[in-house]
Amino acid sequence: MEKKNIAITILIVALVASGVGNIILALIQEPQVAPDTTDYLVRATSAGPDTLEIVDAWDSASNDVLEQVVENLFFYDLTNVDLPRINLLAYSYYWTDTTHLQIQLREGILFHDGTPFNAAAAKWNLDRLLYLTNCTGTNPSTVAQTQSLWMFPDGVTPIISSVATVGTHNITITLPAPYAPFLSTLTYINAGMISPTAHASDATTFIDLTTGHLVGTGPFEYVNYVPGVEVRFARNDAYWMEPANFPGVIYAIYSDVTTAHNAFLGYTVDWNAMAADQNLALYVADPKLTVKYFTVDTGKPSLVYQYMGINNNKYNATWRQAMAFAINYSYVIDVLRLGNAFRAYSAISPGFGGAYNDSVPTGPYAIDHDVVAARDIIQAMDLATTLDVNDDEDWTDLAAATPLLTVTHTYNTGNQFREDYQVAITSWFNLIGVAVVDDGVTFSEFLTYLYDDYDHLGVYAIGWAPDYLDPY
C-alpha cells in the first residue's frame, strides 16, 4: 500500500522539549524506518523518554511516550477544544462527602498482557503511586520527583489517605481533607494504570528505562526504545474503544532540527513536532503538508509557557531585577518567535480563563529592554559607578574584560528558539556588564540539572505545561 502522506505540524505558542531550526539542504543521519512500517505514523521529535516510570515522569518527552500506552481513570476530551474532563477507565464517580470518592470502573477492559483491569488492579496502581512518592512514609529508597503533586501545600500531608476495593469493579478513595483539584490530579500520568501482572517486579521500584517493557490499556502497545534513534509502538487491536487508524507509531528522534526539517519536506516523517517558526511558510506552500496554528485556528491561547529561570541562591533580588530589565521581550516575541507568542502578565496562562489575571501591569513590571534603568540598579549597588549609563560600549567592554558578574545560561540544544535566545541574552547581558557562559546541553542532561543538580544552574531557558487542567 502506498504510504499515506499524513504530514501535520502543530504549532502552539511554545514547545517544551521539541526543537526548532533553520533550513540546511544537506541531509545528515536519520533514524532508520524499517520497510514493514509503510503505514505507520512517523513523528519527528528531539528527544526520547527520560523515564518509563509513570510515577516519576515529569517531562514532555517521557509523557508523550507514556500516554500512548497507559490510560488514567480520568482524562480530557482531546476532540473538544475546551478540553472537558471525562471519565476514561472510570465509568462513573460519586462523592459521598467531601473526603470520600467512590469510583465505578469500566468492565471488560484488558491490559496488553491480557490481565483484567478491575478494582484490585486500580488499587495496586494507586497504592504503588503512594509508595513511590513516599506518601506512605515507608519508602526507604528513591522517591519520585513528582511527590509534591500528591501532597497538600504543606508538603507533609498526602492528598490520599487510603484506597479500598468494593467488589470487583468499584473503589473508594479516602482523602484526609477536602482537595478541590483531586479529580484533575488523577488525570496526570502518575495515576495511570499499568498491569500488576507484567509489572509485579516493579511494585516498589521504578520501571527501568533500558530493560523495562511498559504494559497498559492504551490504544498502542509499547514495542521498544532505541536511544537516539526511535521509540516504537504497535496498535492495540483489542483496544476497548475503536482501534487506532495506524498499525503503529514511530517517534523518530533527531538530534538536530534541520535534519528533521528536511525529513519532513521529503515526507520521510508525517508529523514534525520540531517545527521552527521560520520554516512554517515553506510547509504552508507545500500542497502535501498541512500546518495548524493552534491559537489562530481555535481562538484559544496555549497553556504552555516559555520562561527564563534565575537561581535565587546565586543572584539576589537586585541582580535579578537588573537582568529582567535588560531582556528585550519585544524582540523575543516579534523576531525569535515571529509573533507566535505574547508576553505573560500572570503566573498562569490565559487559557485558564477566569483564573487568569489579565490586568496589564505598569511601572517596573512593564519594562522592556531598558538597559539604562538596569544600569542604574547596578550602580545603586556601588558597582561600575564610574561608567556612563548611556554608553553601551563602556558596558560591553566591561563584560568582555572584567565582568561585574558571570552567569551560566543552561538550555537544551536542538531547540532553535533556545539556541537563538542564547545569542540574544548574551548581547543583552553584556550591555549591563554581565558575561554569559553558553551551557547548551542535551535534553536529558538538562533534566538532570533541573531535577537533581540545582546548584549547577545560573539562568536557564525552559518551558512549562500544566500537569493537569486546573489552575488551583
Write down the Rg: 24 Å
How much of the polypeptide forms β-strand, as a percent range? 15-25%
Average residue pLDDT: 89
N-to-C SSE series? EEHEEEEHEEHEEEHEHEHEHHHHEHEHE
Query: Which architecture of the largest domain does the CATH hierarchy give at level 2?
Result: Roll
Name the strands of the widest sheet in spatial order: 9-10-11-2-12
Shape: globular
The CATH class assignment of the largest domain is Alpha Beta
Most strands sheet: 5 strands, mixed
Structural class computed from helices and strand pairing: alpha/beta
Q: How much helicity do the residues have?
A: 10-25%
Low-confidence stretches: 1-31
Give the CA-CA distance, first to last residue: 49 Å
CATH superfamily of the largest domain: Dipeptide-binding Protein, Domain 3
Count of distinct structural domains? 3
* Number of helices, where a helix is a run of at least 4 consecutive DSSP H or I residues: 12
CATH fold label of the largest domain: Dipeptide-binding Protein, domain 3
Instruction: Give a count of the beta strands, DSSP E runs of length 2 or more.
Output: 17
